[in-house]
Structures are given as structure tokens and as C-alpha cells.
Amino acid sequence: MIPFIDLTRQHAALREELGAAVARVLDSGQFVLGAEGKTLERELAALCGVRWALGVASGTDALRLALSALGVGPGAEVITPAFSFVASASTILMVGATPVFVDIDPATYALDVAAAERAITPRTRAIMPVHLYGHPAPMDRVVELARAHRLAVIEDAAQAVGGAWAGRPVGAWGDAACFSFYPTKNLGACGDAGMVVTDRSDVAERVTRLRHHGDSGRYQHVELGFCSRLDEVQAAVLRVKLVRLATWTEARRRIAARYRALLAGVPLDLPTEAAKARHVYHLFTVRHPQRDTLAKALTEGGVGTAVYYPRSVPDQPMFGGDERRWPEASRAAREVLSLPCFAELSDDEIERVAAAVRHACERS
Ligand SMILES: *Cc1c(COP(=O)(O)O)cnc(C)c1O
Q1: Could you point out which of 17, 46, 71, 88 has its C-alpha 20 to 30 Å from the C-alpha of 196?
Q2: Cα 153 to Cα 125: distance, rounded to the nearest angstrom
Q3: Could you read off the pLDDT of 86-126 as tens digits, one per residue?
Q4: Is 284 in the pocket of ligand 1 (CB under 6 A)?
Q5: CATH number at residue 259
Q6: Closest ligand 1 atom to the C-alpha of 182?
Q7: Ligand 1 centroid – CA 157 distance (Å)
Q8: Are residues 139 and 265 in the same domain?
Q9: Last residue of one domain, picked from the residues 242, 269, 303
Q10: pTM given for the model
């Protein structure tokens, strides 16, 4: 069986270094918002080309705190794509605002900027593009639209650390950008962790306060905040991995190129990479009208696959289960299938996956 993802391979190769990093934290006696976290924040800010990065407890919290820090709250509308992980929209609800769903561009899965423009109302306060599967949203156009209407931009960059649009890193475009270090993400902790990056000092200050009970320093609690801090063990683990991120991203891009070559001519839609995009292939996602049949054939052929996501966000019961207004999001939910794509996948495995896909598609 070729696994869809196997984190044990990555951790086996880093075992000694990870152990030493955790030991360093144990010896320091400092476990929350300490030196490891501060260094990781500097390193991630540098990667994104911005001045600040603030470690928080998860990618979800990064979104929630970034929204609050930008003043998004009750009465506000936030435009977000109808096809994403649920947290892109649920965090908008968490701050008391209203998600306004727009359909996606079926080629890149990014929000359709023209649809976003049509969705703007006097109550719109922000746009939250999602760099789904590691393919950046068209940030030049998103930022241009936001500027014209005085809207904030919050990048949901949970799946796209290390990616870029028009040569500029994801995370550097928005008023704030949010990363997740959930274990299966391209840069994954051994537990939950996340980060907000921003070039705005006011946003950095407010996130710093919000992640720690609204404390402006020395137990002066100036607003209602949260308890959402990055712990030192996760920060130390992430620092060990961050120095490998560029190599791992290259490996993912090579796997994608290999799949493209091996699957040429197969009746199946392969992922596109827009001319301005540097795709980091968090997922290598194909689409097929008989997706479930294909997935079953691949499982029987010994290939692990996964569906991200089987429902559009507005089609989720918590959002009312309505899918008709976002036809491309709904079609994506029916057709997408992700193939194994992680740095430690061997050449032989890539070839076996491609052969199984070719066999299944040519038979159906
Ligand atoms: C993973 C993810 C999140 C949430 O991150 P967590 O760390 O799991 O809270 C948000 N948005 C997208 C697109 C994600 O993939």
C-alpha cells in the first residue's frame, strides 16, 4: 500500500535533531512564548518578507485573532471562497461577523475575483482569499480590489507556506496572513500551532494582546482576549523543520512535475499552475467526473487517496446546507481527489501511483 501521507518517514530522518530540540526546551524550563517561539517568529517573518510574526495555538486561532485585530466583528461582512476548509468561514462567525461566500475559479480553486467584486456591500469589511492546495490566490487582483473599496485582506495561507504570487511570498500581500502548522501541513508541528504574519505594527500589537488575555503588559487587560499562545516544544520542532522547508517544497514540486509527465494523455484533469504562481503542492489534486469510482479503484490498487473537501463550505450543515448558488464549488466537491504528494515519496512509488491512476481512468 502506498500511503496518502506518512509523517513517520519525515520524523525518522529527523529523530535525533527533534529529540535534541525538545530536550533543549525541557532544560530551559520555559514552555510558552519563550526564546524558541521568538526565534521562529523572526524566521517566519523573514521567509514572508514582513516585519512581524506572532505564534498562536493553531491556524484557526490565527484567522480568528487576525480578523479581530483588523476590527472585524458584529455587523461586518467578510468575503471568502465557497470551497475551502471550514475554518476559513467558521472563524468569521467566531468573531461575530458574517461570511459572504463567492464561487471559485475552477482551474486554480482560488476565489473568483470578479465574483468577489459583485459580492461587496456597504457592510463588507474584509476579503479572505485562501491559497488552497498550496496554489496562491491572484493576490495582485485581490489587493487592488480591496484597496479600491477600503477593505482589509486576510490571507488564509494555511496550505501555502513558502509559496509566492508574482514573485512575492504569500503572507506579504495581505494586511495579515495566517499559517497553520497542523502536523500534515507543509510545515507541520507535532501537535497544533499557527502563526499570524503582518507588516502592520498596529495589527502585530493587537494580535500580541489578543493571544494573551488582552494584556497590554504587566497585567493590564485592556480588552477581552484569548488564551492562544505558541508553546516552546512546538516552536523548537518547527525550527528543526523550517530549515528543510525549501528542500521539501522542491521535492513536492518535482513530484508534481513527475505526475504531470506520467499522466499526460490520461482522461483526467491535472492541477494547473497559473503563470504568476509558485505552487507548493500541499496537495496534488486531480479531478474526475466519476471521482468516487476512481478513488475506489485506487484503494483496491493499493494507493491511498483523500478528498479535500467532499462538501462546499456553504453546503455544510452548520452553514445551512445550500450549494446551488456556488456551482463551481459544488462541482469541485464532487470531483476532486488528492494523490499522495509528500517529500519522502520515492520515485518508484510515484510511478506506481501514476500507473494505477492511468489504469483506473482508461478502464472507466
Ligand atoms: C488547516 C487549515 C486551517 C486551520 O488550521 P488549524 O491549524 O487546523 O487550526 C484553516 N484554513 C485552511 C485552508 C486550512 O487548510
Answers
A1: 17
A2: 9
A3: 999 999 999 999 999 999 999 999 999 999 999 999 999 99
A4: no
A5: 3.90.1150.10
A6: 7
A7: 8
A8: no
A9: 242
A10: 0.98
